[in-house]
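Protein 1 of 2
SEQ + STRUCT:
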Amino acid sequence: MATHDEQKTFCYRAHGVRFVTDVRLGRVRPAPAREAPSSADVHVCRHEKLNKSESEKSTYVDSQGGIVHIHSPFGRVDVERDEVRLFPIEGTTHRALFEYYAVYIAAVLLHQRNHLTLHASAVGVNGQGIAFIGPRGAGKSTTASLFYERGHELLSDDLITCPPSSADAPPHVDPGFPWMKLGEESLGAVLERSSDGLERTSPNSPKRMVPTHERQPDASLPLQHIYVLGYHDDSHDGQEVEVERVGTKEACLVLLSNAFVPMFLEGTGADPNHLDRCAALARRIPMSVLGRPQSMDALPSVYDAVLDDLKTTRPPEA
């Protein structure tokens, strides 16, 4: 492993995890000075760069001996419970490799710590966390960016993690990395800005990184409601946004199908009671399906429908 004793050590916090590293993350604010490196949960370590011949054509993940390996065209990341090792290829920096896969790294680390990790985005509304969940392309980041543009806080994009909670403490969501990943259409239609000056999420990706430092909570927020995003099908005549409450069993199935790291359920030291965690969250947090037309013009109605629905939220069925 390469040594960098001459470089400053930084401490960062995201998703409740304290990272200590000599890799300066330009988009993440350092943790308060009182959080000494000795209190770190995870150390992020630079390692030697790989030759381009050692890179992969596509990204894939495997797990061996409790270590999760993320193989990619930009290098390899090894994730253990208390250490992350970065092996970028020539032409890629250690910082870039970490930020390309930061969400995946955090998901693995928190899954190992028995957190429920979900492929979702979340915002803060009146001091409460509101999550948007759904399959790829359902508009999770776009919906979160709509709330951000309207003055709300971005809690986390692309990943939310719920730590184990007692019967007395409501489930809560920790702030994630301070950025959103948005495509050109969402940038223009929601934030009314171009992609000029915004870094790509990875060299070949059409999505851009939008910094959100100025409006991200410093602490976790209690989770109030989960919305499952979906589009009206061709047989649906209406153009209005519809919100429909789902029962606990259906909610549990939604959580199971949107677990961020189902491929890591074995071999990572995670709590085997994953189903129980999904069921517990489904019982405690209400969930609604939000259906809308597949048009950016419907986004203002989505915003209004969510705020109206939050006023009438009731605990889910027993």
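Protein 2 of 2
SEQ + STRUCT:
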Amino acid sequence: MIFPESEKSVSNVNLTVDSWNNISKYVGVKNAFFIFDEQRVVGSGVWVKSFLKLVQNNQWILLSATPGDTWTDYVPVFIANGFYKNKSEFERRHVIFSRFSKFPKVDRYVEVSRLLKLRNSITVYMHYNKRTIAHDNNVPVPFDRELLNTVLIKRWNLYEQRPVRDVAELCCLMRKVVNSDPRRAHIVGQLLAKHQKIIVFYNFNYELDILLQLGEDLGVTTAQWNGHKHEQIPETESWMYLVQYAAGAEGWNCIETDTIVFFSQNYSYKATIQAAGRIDRINTPFTDLYYYYLRSNSVIDLAIQKAFNNKRNFNEHRFMAA
């Protein structure tokens, strides 16, 4: 009942559809109703600043399957609803920062009961009859313990043959050792043989190189969605669609396959759930959807899993309260 042409719409409503990238164009608009698809107001960047200006003179609703991973993710929405004047006020009242970190790191939140009350007052859980059935499969993958110990214990950068500079580099190197193990790619090949058409989510460029080489070795069509390429889903009998979490966890969908493989873990519960939703669409012809999470029992993968579970529990608490 609503169209871009106001004369066709009920009550002469004029519909405009645009990208989050263009939100700053609308900060001067007044007396409109904005429907924001996906929760992109996290942090303090241009999108958040434009959002906070825009909502002062308009009605709005924010749609999201995963509103946030932590209380900090809710800050812009809390400010938009008038609960706090700014981020500083929120932090003064609710955030205890770690005393031993070189950068601002949240140690814990206080007055959580108030935060729960505020969140429950502005979120509406939309119940619906779900037709699809998700089959989550945790796939154990091996890793090279000797190489990992060289990085972790000896603090040695295997790839540049020098000492590890800091903790951040240490974590990145540990992930690279674990994720680069050739047996991980071999498991992807086995899953491809089973399902024929698979979407593979990855984090880093070196993982993309591994997956591209796998596709070449298997003679399988591969396509990509990342910061450099937005290629179409292949139309061949068998294919791999390689998607980088940060670039492709939202904003597109595919009903040509029932399978997603998570080649490496992502710290964000929000990003992972959004990624899983790429095949869980209303118009999918599949009832059973298959998700494969490749995880090792290395110290780095276990740490990521713990961080992920904390964020999952944070989100599930909201759904259980609905």
